[in-house]
Amino acid sequence: MTDTPCLRLEKIGVRFTLGEGGLLHRGKETFTALEDVSLDIARGECLGLIGESGSGKSTLGRAVVHLVTPTAGRIVFGGTDLTALDARGLRPYRPRMQMVFQDPGESLNPRFTVEDIVTEPLRLLHIGTKRTQRALAARMLERVGLPAAALAHRPTQYSGGQRQRIAIARALVTEPELLVLDEPTSGLDVSMQARILNLLRDLQTSLGLTYLFITHDVGAVSYLARRVAVLYRGRVVEIAPTRELIRAPRHPYTVALLDALPRFIRGATIPSPAAPPPPVGDRASVPTEGRGCAYAPRCPQRQPPCLETDVALEPAGIDGRLLACHHPFGTVS
Ligand SMILES: Nc1ncnc2c1ncn2[C@@H]1O[C@H](COP(=O)(O)OP(=O)(O)OP(=O)(O)O)[C@@H](O)[C@H]1O
Ligand SMILES: [Mg+2]
């Protein structure tokens, strides 16, 4: 493929400054949520993003749509380096990428009508008049399977699945090319999850959308994403075609994560009996350079160099897989 990717992340780092205090505080404690994250998403592709709670998935999604400012690296959208632009330069790009947020309950303010909610991105970006905003919102509601009459209602009148449709309509209203979907089906029952996933797949095809699809659900990722990236404590440790990653995970963390995530068996997602991986716990920052592999302290495959020698994401095998591991499982297939 010679096509420019829809999105290219180059060595993205996000470091949060902790504690209160508005102005720059020298020596303030920082927390590294993402380190050296590089990945591409082709036009029309859905890239899955998995990783345990706290691994930085939402932070990465928020960085992509400019709700979090990276402290390092570049975000290249359709060939343009967005990190080099100021707020004014960025303006034309903002409508072209939107996010469906992790918790629709929180993102859909019950005091607002569905019209207020769905048209909000247009108002924030000063796109159109009240009349055209309303017409676009009505069209998007119908696109996601809700009647235009819903505009006058409040989100609290709707079920979880319908509220998620409202959240999707809201993300679509600026007619974006790229959608970050942050766990769009969590909190829904299994049959509703399947309907929302169907809707997302249909929208992707009919509107030619590109997705970054954050999930905890192996079934959902198999259904929607042809490739998956695995995030461990702010770093991508493995990227591979979904089928290959599930059939033959190679990074020891991917193996542990897949064992712990819900499994997709014969069309139904059932919780895994395995315990989830231990939490990161001490909120320790991502180890930075010269500290070896971040997973080494937990890794059953660990060898002496793993604790000392840094590891980079590199091509591993003919399936387009990338791996950051000194001693991965399996042989090159
Ligand atoms: N604004 C912030 N300030 C400080 N730390 C933050 C901030 N936002 C996120 N973090 C920290 O960054 C880490 C990654 O958080 P993030 O929400 O991206 O994880 P996640 O992978 O989406 O987790 P989950 O699966 O629970 O949604 C966490 O330790 C979190 O506490
Ligand atoms: Mg999250």
Sheet of most strands: 8 strands, mixed
Total of helices: 10
Helix content: 25-40%
Task: Give the bound compounds.
Answer: adenosine-5'-triphosphate, magnesium ion
- Secondary structure: number of strands: 14
Low-confidence stretches: 264-285
Principal-axes geometry comes out as globular
CATH architecture: 3-Layer(aba) Sandwich
Question: Could you name the CATH class?
Answer: Alpha Beta
What CATH calls the topology is Rossmann fold
* Strand content bin: 15-25%
CATH superfamily: P-loop containing nucleotide triphosphate hydrolases
Given helix and strand content, the structural type is: alpha/beta
Radius of gyration, in angstroms, nearest whole number: 20 Å
Mean pLDDT: 88
What is the H-and-E element order?
EEEHEEHEHHHHEHEHEEHHEEEE
Structure, explained:
With 333 residues, the chain is of the alpha/beta class. The protein has a single domain, classed as P-loop containing nucleotide triphosphate hydrolases (Rossmann fold), CATH 3.40.50.300. Helices cover 28% and strands 22% of the residues. It is built from ten helices and 14 strands. The strands form three sheets. The protein has an eight-stranded mixed sheet with strand order 6-7-8-3-9-10-14-13, sandwiched between helices. A hairpin with a 2-residue loop joins strand 11 and strand 12 (268-270). The longest helix is centred in the middle third of the chain and has 18 residues, at 190-207. Adenosine-5'-triphosphate binds next to strand 2 and helix 1.
